[in-house]
């Protein structure tokens, strides 16, 4: 399935996207300072290579899966319309439990977004992509959607507020990033605010 608005296209993973994802994982790494930085801090060269190999295996497995006709689209790639449908990142969903912990057994959905190329940020692409992704999820039957971040990720905090997310749960001192201690934050989408933005 493909979704689009005037700024971006959301579509399933294609084989050519894997090279972008691996390059972003290993070369264009500035985005890792903001998107789950605790997963990347202090990683050795060998650990980076292992992570890239694991990512490649996961993406190849995703390519081999049949795309469901209906249901929740758990991951879509972001392309801008011009120039030439350039691939710039991805949106994803994952399940969390009642304590807002990531869990395969969770029955609540949280969303994330990543736009690794710095040249593609601060242009409205992330807002357009996440808005479209939320619409897709709502149309697939979800009525309760969350997002999670840490209190030092000011860009994500601003985007969440802009789209109508409201703070749902705060875990004080939950994350240590670059020597600082930050809160873990979960937000729930206020549908009325989302539809009236």
Description:
With about 200 residues, this protein is of the alpha+beta class. Helices cover about 30% and strands about 30% of the residues. The chain contains 5 helices and 8 strands; from the N terminus they run E-E-H-H-E-E-E-H-E-H-E-E-H. It has helices spanning about 15-25, 45-65, 125-140, 155-165, 190-195; strands at about 5, 10, 75-80, 85-95, 110-115, 145-150, 165-175, 180-190. The chain has an 8-stranded mixed β-sheet, sandwiched between helices. Strand 5 (about 110-115), helix 3 and strand 6 form a beta-alpha-beta unit. Helix 1 (about 15-25) runs antiparallel to helix 2. The longest helix is centred in the N-terminal third of the chain and has 20 residues, at about 45-65. The radius of gyration is 16 Å and the shape is globular. The mean pLDDT is about 90.
Topology, element by element:
Elements lengths: L2 E2 L3 E4 L3 H12 L18 H20 L10 E6 L5 E11 L11 E7 L10 H15 L5 E6 L3 H10 L1 E13 L2 E10 L1 H5 L2
Parallel strand pairs: 5-6
Antiparallel strand pairs: 1-2, 2-3, 3-4, 4-5, 6-8, 7-8
Helix pairs in contact: 1-2
- Unreliable runs: none
Please describe the biggest sheet, giving its number of strands, its sense, and whether it closes into a barrel.
Answer: 8 strands, mixed
Distance between the termini: 25 Å
Structure classification: alpha+beta
Instruction: Please bin the fraction of helical residues.
Output: 25-40%
Overall average residue pLDDT: 92
Name the helix and strand elements from N-terminus to C-terminus, one letter apiece: EEHHEEEHEHEEH
| Rounded Rg | 16 Å
The proportion of residues in beta strands is 25-35%
Tell the overall outline: globular
The number of E-state strands comes to 8
Number of helices: 5
Q: What's the arrangement of strands in the largest beta sheet?
A: 1-2-3-4-5-6-8-7
């Amino acid at each position: 399935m493909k979704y689009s608005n005037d700024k971006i296209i959301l579509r399933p993973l294609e084989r050519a996207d894997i090279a972008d994802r691996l390059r972003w994982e290993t070369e264009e790494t500035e985005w890792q300072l903001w998107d789950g930085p605790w997963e990347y801090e202090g990683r050795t060269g060998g650990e980076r290579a292992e992570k890239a190999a694991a990512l490649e295996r996961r993406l190849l497995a995703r390519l081999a899966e049949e795309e469901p006709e209906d249901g929740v689209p758990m991951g879509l790639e972001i392309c801008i319309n011009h120039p030439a449908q350039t691939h710039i990142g991805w949106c994803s969903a994952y399940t969390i439990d009642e304590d807002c912990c990531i869990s395969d057994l969770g029955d609540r959905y949280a969303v994330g977004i990543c736009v690794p190329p710095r040249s593609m940020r601060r242009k409205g692409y992330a807002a357009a992509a996440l808005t479209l992704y939320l619409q897709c999820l709502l149309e697939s039957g979800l009525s309760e959607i969350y997002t999670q971040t840490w209190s030092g990720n000011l860009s994500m905090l601003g985007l969440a507020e802009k789209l109508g997310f409201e703070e749902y749960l705060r875990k004080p001192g939950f994350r240590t990033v670059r020597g600082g201690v930050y809160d873990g934050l979960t937000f729930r989408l206020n549908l009325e605010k989302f539809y009236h933005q």
